[in-house]
Specification:
With 117 residues, this protein is of the alpha+beta class. It contains five helices and four strands, in the order E-H-E-H-H-H-E-E-H. It has a four-stranded mixed sheet, sandwiched between helices. The protein is globular, with a radius of gyration of 14 Å. The chain starts with a strand and ends with a helix.
Length: 117
């Protein structure tokens, strides 16, 4: 059986590292998925969105340079955004922590704290 929690993690992101440290300090059983190395498919993203209870627009990092240069003020369907995120995982909000059928974006860290309760 797998870990109780999964964290979609970017080691270069301070917020993502904070979430990993929190989970370690709480002693929870979790698996780390480095989603920049192990790319998420559109189906993976759809499953995550369902657990997050969010639409695709809410997980796009709009402050990211790539977004500002290439995608800002452009209109795409949800399916097109999923393709863009699949091809550009850097644009996905992070970290995402999953427990069963529920997930949160770890910004702010209180979201992760509430999921751990």
């Amino acid at each position: 059986m797998g870990a109780e929690y999964t964290i979609y993690h970017n080691p270069r992101c301070r917020k993502s590292r904070e979430a990993v440290q929190l989970m370690q300090s709480e002693g929870v059983d979790f698996e780390i998925v480095k989603y920049l190395d192990n790319l998420l498919t559109r189906n993976d993203l759809k499953r995550l969105l369902a657990k997050l209870n969010l639409d695709v627009q809410r997980i796009i990092r709009k402050e990211e340079k790539l977004y500002k240069e290439k995608y800002k003020n452009m209109n795409f369907t949800d399916e097109e955004w999923l393709i863009i995120l699949e091809e550009n995982p850097k644009l996905i909000q992070r970290p995402i922590v999953v427990k069963g059928n529920k997930a949160v974006i770890g910004r702010p860290i209180e979201n992760v704290i509430n999921l751990l309760k």
